[in-house]
Amino acid sequence: MAPLLVPSLFLLALLRALPGTQAACPVPADLRPADGPRVCARLYDKSDAYYENCCAGSELSLEPGADLPYLPSGWYQTASSLVVGPRCELTVWSRKGKGGKTRKFSSGAYPRLAEFRLGIFGDWNNAIAALYCKCN
Predict the structure, then answer these.
(1) Tens digits of per-residue pLDDT, 105-114?
(2) What's the whole-model pTM score?
């Protein structure tokens, strides 16, 4: 039985490391509630080294056309995970008033913003200071 245990543990570790195996983040199609308005994107203030613990904590839902050069109280440089809805695009900036570095996120789940580079030394974890979300 021991020889089978080692490959099983290796496979489990490999599945945790693969992108796209995030269990906690909703799929983009799930952002649209059955009885509510369309959601362009949703930001989360928690992420983790394990994908199943990402997209947790407080949430900030954005409607299509949301244009926030100054984020609401408590969300300035707080987002650690995000999900962008189908046929939508989220543009973010690293400084208030749409200044600094910029990045576009297309439809999909982004469980760890720490995996996306912001310049030479930084990343997008806790770096979003302004945003614009649009949908087709």
Answers:
(1) 999 999 999 9
(2) 0.79
